[in-house]
């Protein structure tokens, strides 16, 4: 059990922050600078999971992050195309809600929501690649 304590702590922290951000955006749904900052901090937290997984020797954490990012990218495309499917309707809000702060730029960029969904998709692709590289860099315990 002691071997997996770092993984368990990181997963609890990750789930807790994701649920907290989802609750925050459920209460404060308008596009404000505060929501943009919260989304930016959440994206930075997702990127910081990669180097955190290296010293705790958790390849599983990196693989779970890679799968999360892959599902995020797929749901991003499905949400943009307004797919009406049970899985998209159930998982879409859970995965996409932490990124609603980016819609603060929707009117400022001239392309509207397309540019926002493209940015989320590019972030998901980068996170998938970076987590995959991180999973390859994890050294086994001695």
Explain this structure:
This protein is mostly helical and 142 residues long. 72% of the residues lie in helices and 0% in strands. The protein has five helices and no strands. The chain has helices at 5-27, 33-53, 59-80, 86-96, 113-137. Helix 1 packs antiparallel against helix 2 (33-53), helix 2 packs parallel to helix 5 and helix 3 (59-80) packs across helix 4 (86-96). The longest helix has 25 residues, at 113-137. It is elongated. The two termini are 16 Å apart.
Poorly predicted ranges (pLDDT <50, ≥5 residues)?
Answer: none
Terminal-residue CA separation = 16 Å
Order of helices and strands: HHHHH
Q: Taking all residues together, what is the mean pLDDT?
A: 89
Defining key terms:
142 residues, mainly alpha, 5 helices
Give a brief description.
The protein has 142 residues and is mostly helical.
How are the SSEs ordered, and which strands pair?
Layout: H1 5-27, H2 33-53, H3 59-80, H4 86-96, H5 113-137
Helix pairs in contact: 1-2, 2-3, 2-5, 3-4, 3-5
């Amino acid at each position: 059990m002691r071997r997996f304590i770092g993984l368990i702590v990181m997963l609890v922290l990750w789930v807790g922050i994701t649920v907290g951000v989802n609750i925050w955006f459920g209460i404060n749904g308008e596009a404000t600078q505060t929501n943009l900052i919260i989304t930016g901090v959440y994206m930075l937290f997702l990127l910081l999971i990669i180097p955190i997984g290296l010293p705790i020797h958790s390849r599983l954490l990196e693989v779970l992050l890679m799968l999360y990012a892959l599902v995020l990218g797929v749901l991003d495309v499905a949400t943009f195309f307004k797919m009406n499917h049970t899985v998209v309707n159930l998982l879409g809000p859970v995965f996409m809600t932490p990124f609603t702060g980016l819609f603060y730029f929707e009117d400022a960029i001239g392309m509207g929501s397309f540019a926002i969904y493209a940015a989320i998709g590019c972030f998901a692709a980068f996170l998938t690649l970076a987590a995959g590289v991180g999973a390859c860099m994890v050294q086994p315990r001695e």
